[in-house]
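Lab notebook, entry 539. We have the chain sequence and a SMILES string for zinc ion, and the next step in the workflow is to get a structural model of the bound complex before anyone spends time on docking refinements. Request logged below.

Task: model protein plus zinc ion, output structure tokens.
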Amino acid sequence: LGASLYLRGLTADQFQDLTNKLWSSQHGNCFICGQPMDLTVHAGHLDIDHVEPLAVGGKDDPLNFALTHDSCNRSKQAADLRVARVLARFSRIRAAASLDDGRSANLGDVLKDSGGSKYPLVVQDAVEEARFAFSQLSDESVRTVPIYKDTLSEMRYLFAELPIEYLHHDDRINPRPIGSNLGGLVEEFHRKLPQLHVALAWYSKSDESGPKIKVFDGQHKAAAQVLLGVRRLPVRVFIDADPDALLTANTHAGTTLRQVAFDKSIQRHLGNTLFWDRVQRFRKDRGLAEDDLSFSERDLMRHFKGEFRAMKRYILDAARDSITNDPENRLRPFIDLGGRKTERPLSYSTVERTFYSFFIYQDVLDTALDFEYESGLNPRDLERGQIVRLMNLIADKLLISEFDPSSGAYRVENRVQSGDDDITDAHLRAYRLMREEILYAWLGYIKQIVSWSFAAIGKPFKAERMFQYQFPEPLWSNFENYLVSLKKMPVWVNRDLATTVFGGKQNYAFWQQVFESGKTPQGQQVLAGPLDLMKMVQE
Ligand SMILES: [Zn+2]
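Result returned:
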């Protein structure tokens, strides 16, 4: 009953009467989740609450009451029940997307859930104006809008308010999922504050399934409004546009220009897309077949010399992204691609600063992209495959059924300090081994182990591209032995060290010193002695 004087003043009969009335006016469904409420089965587990909170001027009056499951009311994501209802719906959309194929929801999912993204839009564009009708919605009136030309790029565009049935999400130019700021935007629009920027979209007349209006910017604002029931959205539409120019402009906005904060993993993914785009353009410029891969990374750099620096980044992004998104990668579920690092032990940045900076060759190759591909010895392919295999070994030995997702990665050492019994030894060990400064130190020795192995069989190799040479099979047993003996070290489950050694964030050199001497730079004995790498790989 909370703060409601009105509800507290009701007799039991009057209260039941109000419950019944709300139940039938809501057609028997919970105001927040929309699922049925059973007046007998759920008796004692239903809440009556203010739709508009009293704190913001809602009335303590039957017209401002709604009936909900009490669990829905307890876990609501906003004080205003109308906003809470919208966010509950988005949570369902998000859960469905993740159940579907393990991805995060984007504008496309929101549009489809609202009956949008159904039709292409045929636009008749003359020099100065464009005409179209919403025939599939039985609205045959012809709209005429002016066509503008972007002065510098000379790209043509129009402004229009389009029904959501004609709007589609472009997940190639904009591969970002909808983030956690959606709730704030829903509240903003719910308070009747206007949308400040229009969404950006484009279409191509050569689109095989008909010209689709594809939204590539402004998806959060669009999604928030669609969830609030908006059926038409204002958009700036590039006419018969070159998607590559838009992709490049949007990528630059989120990377080099820093106009929008893209997560690193998203930047890499866009870079990968741009890499394949340039490959495509290179073939066209040279008159090569559509599947030709007989040219090298160096050839691409030379060909696109106007952007050779960016080209080099796309090449490396492609190498990184193909590892991160390899379907066989079992380490991936332990990586927080959003970079916030509260549930998962590894942030994407940590993976870049360790695995990728240690093991990916950072320069361009002179061999053809398809060099030795059939034999399985293609350098980039070997590199990707062997890094993924190493990541899988690490996931299998140190993380899977060790790291407990329900315990998470948030303030683990603090919780250990305060005697939190829910943190198991296995979880604590997995968490500590994945801390960036610790991982950096022990993962670095992998390079040492590879060098020994090649030296033992007399194989010449270049250290900076060691993952591009096929590893002999016994080397994988060496890695495994190394991980197993690393895992056995008592330091990872020593809870007394939560305040000292593991208390603050140490630098890389701190842990290198520990592994080399058994002691911290301050002289505290932490390990039995220096790491004996040779012994570790043979055990
Ligand atoms: Zn409910």
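Notes for the group: Residues 264-286 form the longest helix (23 residues). Worth checking against the assay data. The chain is about 40% helix and 10% strand.
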